[in-house]
Specification:
This protein is α+β, with helices and mostly antiparallel strands. About 30% of the residues lie in helices and about 25% in strands. The protein is built from 18 helices and 24 strands. Strands 6-9-10-24-23-22-19-12 form an 8-stranded mixed beta sheet, with helices on both faces.
Length: about 600
Amino acid sequence: MHAYRTHTCGQLRAADAGRPARLSGWVHSKRDHGGLLFIDLRDHFGLTQCVFAAGSPAFATADALRVESVVTVTGAVVRREAGTVNPKLPTGEIELRGAAIAVQSAADVLPIQVAGDEKFPDELRLKYRFLDLRRTRVHDNMVLRAQVIASIRRRMIEAGFTEFTTPILTASSPEGARDFLVPARLHPGKFYALPQAPQQFKQLLMVAGFDRYFQIAPCFRDEASRADRSPGEFYQLDFEMSFVTQEDVFDTIEPVIAGVFEEFARGRGVTPPPFPRIPYEQAMLRYGSDKPDLRNPLLVSEVSEHFAGSGFGLFARIVAGGGVVRAIPAPGTAKNPRSFFDKLNEWAREEGGGGLGYIVYDADGPKGPIARNLEPERAEAIRAACGVAAGDSVFFVAGPRETAAKFSGAVRTRLGADLGLIAQGEFRFCWITDFPMYELNEETGQIDFSHNPFSMPQGGMEALNSQDPLTIKAFQYDIVCNGVELSSGAIRNHRPDIMIRAFEIAGYTAADVEARFGGMLNAFRYGAPPHGGSAPGIDRIVMLLAEEPNIREVILFPLNQQGEDLMMSAPAEIAPARWKELHLKPDLPPTPR
């Protein structure tokens, strides 16, 4: 018999009754039933009930154990009595009658409990992450993550992609976030950067002729934490394809993403390919977001024209000044109490929206403060534009175009949730396309890239030379699921002349481009194929499948919100000798008193 186990703790079944067995694992829980001691023994594969009779040689040892001690139990497999079968466990028809028990490692008193669903503070969970990972839900999330990655890898290889790994120590690249820098000891005053994404390398692979590349790529960004973004590092399905159009990219990756979600959906619905394509401008108008949750059926309408020159002076003045008015329907709310409308108005003020106007449409016509000051024909035109009927209401957001678009999206989400309209048990996908190539930097007032700077502008060089930069669209796209952006991607700019001109508009000189991206730019001068790709986030995919609200719940050893690893005490100070070795001197902020 093996020294530690003949079976795993999830393996024994009724057919094994009468056989000897040896199991090793963690003491998940103990129950003393007076003369019989029950231990649930747990390993990676499952849980088996072990029974020790009072007076047996193993009883005293088992009785003295703390939970989470690691033990080896030897005994005989027996069927449970009919009334004690546990149908929730794969091993629930049997138990192991313990004849001997060996303690491999005794556990101290636990700082957090492993068994049960008790909630513990995040800081405590992260400090003792090795214990937290033993808990069923967290453990299952990590197994799911591994299975998702294996499924993705298999599907990408079947689609004709080849997996390559790209460098971790590299040069800084303008990916929209702050780099993590690594001092180069042998090159005083110079630094490597950890890659925010393998952007340039994967494009160079296309130039090198590899045609279809992918990897499960680690990416590093020095940015703040939020529910759907982990600070420090994350992983993405990074892929690139040669000689493709935007539609080719969509057609290739949609079966991979849909297939993975279908495989792990557990009965939940998945949008079948082809996924809806929604232009950016339409997304901002109809959903108030470039990450629309299509489970929410509410659509935003543009109603500025119906308030232009109207009797409702506030909105009329906003429209005259170049602003817009957006309308969000609220079906079936006409008979709601006044408190419903007041509560939403107060919420809007708290969110910085300056309040939330509305019209109630009942059988007698439009009602409410706005309706009293608005011509009846205009109120009727608004009702028709929003597609509402008697018994419904319409809420309004007014202001500058971009501000109104974003806040109308927040109102749409709030109404969808409050009215119970968001479909459950669904994964709704879409592509957001035709992003603007440039935007105005709010801080500097200068033109800046709005998305990936290496994207091909729609219209190429002619558009760059003849159009207002803020009107130029790019071959850029995002894939969105349930309001979560899974990835951004683009058809790349593979022409050196177009790249230099595109960066020139964003304030970079040709020398700047040569200095920062010379390796890729030089490669393009020796024959580069048209190419494009994307990079769906692994962490976000698993977060959606696991129905977890926070991305930390699907990452093995996440940092906390301050970017600290409480378990390993990182980041940590370094010895003075290391500063000297790296040719650096500390310039630390003063210690607060």
